[in-house]
Amino acid sequence: MNTGYFAWGTYQQSQSRYVKPTVSEPEKQQGKRLVLWSESGKNLPRSELLPEPVERNNRSASEKTLDAQCLVVGPFGSASKADDMQQRLFSLGVASRERSDNEASEYDHWVHIPPLASREAAIRLLRELQGQNIDSFVITQGELANGISLGLFSKEVSANKVSSRLLQAGYETRIKQLARQPQTYWLELAVKEADKITEGMWERFADEYNGLKVLEKNCKGIASESSIH
Fold first, then answer.
1. Between these two residues, 179 and 39, which has the higher pLDDT value?
2. What backbone torsions phi and psi does residue 176 show, to the nearest 5 degrees?
């Protein structure tokens, strides 16, 4: 599973909050929002949403299908907590699907570009990457502040492929391992569903669910407004 459940374990050294990432699904004006991803604590992202419009090239239907994105929300330490969050989302008209993470891998693999000299430099690089249809986020806090997040992967081989591709394109990348604790629960949402949730709502959820994170991944068959699992 690709960006699989990137951070989808309870990271033992994390005091994380949340991130609501950009969407890859084209909007009516074919724009892509700029998101700053904050990272605090020794291991995990602690994030806030700071959107800004970024132009994006038109893409073919096949490219969009291959690049289909969804969001995963969690981790939850029990199925009951995940169920509670799922019901709260449902009350807002947001469909989601619950899954548990029982993968044997002990680590997730975070591909990133090391911190740049300033936030402005990081945003310029982010625009450059997004202009090439590379999903990416600016890290706004912690030891990797002003770096660029390029995705979190459950499989090391997937992280290495992404890192190698960007290295060949002339970008300096690093891979950071994040320890994962198995048997956690997550909710998957289609991007269009997540767009129904305001920044203020995400902040409230982050306050109520300790360590809540929202990350983007490639996915198939995620619940939409017409189906809830």
1. 179
2. -110, 130
Is there a contact between 132 and 55 (Cβ–Cβ < 8 Å)?
Answer: no
Residue 149's nearest CA partner among 37, 11, 25, 32 is 37
Backbone torsions φ then ψ of 62, nearest 5 degrees: -65, -40
pLDDT mean over 155-176? 94
- Where is 66: in which H helix or E strand? helix 61-66
Give residue for tokens 């019901």. 87
Answer whether residue 229 shows pLDDT above 90.
Answer: no
Could you tell me the two tokens for 74?
A: 């969690």
Angle, vertex CA 20, rays to CA 85 and CA 134, nearest 5:
135
**CA atoms of 37 and 150, how far apart (whole Å):** 11
pLDDT in tens, 57-76: 444 443 443 345 788 888 88
Query: What is this structure's pTM?
Result: 0.42
| CA–CA distance, 137 with 151 (Å, rounded to integer) | 9
Which stretches within 118-184 are classed as H helix?
119-131, 156-168
**30 versus 154: which is more confidently predicted?**
154
Q: Hey, is 70 helix, strand or coil?
A: strand
- Work out whether the CA dihedral 19, 22, 25, 26 comes out positive or negative: positive
